[in-house]
Backbone:
């Protein structure tokens, strides 16, 4: 975002709703994956697969790439 630009309260609310919608979709897909595998714990693999199922194309690839990057950083600093 450019420093001279802002976002309205309504636009922020829409973005928040959209974020929660996709978060919920990803969690629901991950839950379905562990149910079919008869597991009780969601691992990074299920989350990654759920992201690929929920999002499409480049957005999914970018999300997985960023997730892997953050996971690696967390491993390094913990």
Residues:
């Amino acid at each position: 975002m450019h420093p001279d630009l802002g976002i309205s309260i309504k636009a922020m609310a829409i973005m928040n709703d959209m974020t929660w919608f996709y978060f919920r979709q990803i969690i629901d897909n991950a839950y379905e994956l562990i149910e079919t595998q008869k597991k009780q714990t969601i691992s990074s693999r299920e989350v990654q697969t759920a992201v690929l199922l929920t999002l499409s194309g480049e957005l999914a690839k970018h999300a997985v790439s960023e997730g892997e990057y953050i996971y690696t950083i967390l491993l390094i600093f913990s």
Q: What stands out?
A: The chain has a mean pLDDT of 94. Helices lie at 9-36, 44-54, 57-77. The two ends are 30 Å apart (CA to CA). Residues 36 and 70 are 27 Å apart (CA to CA).
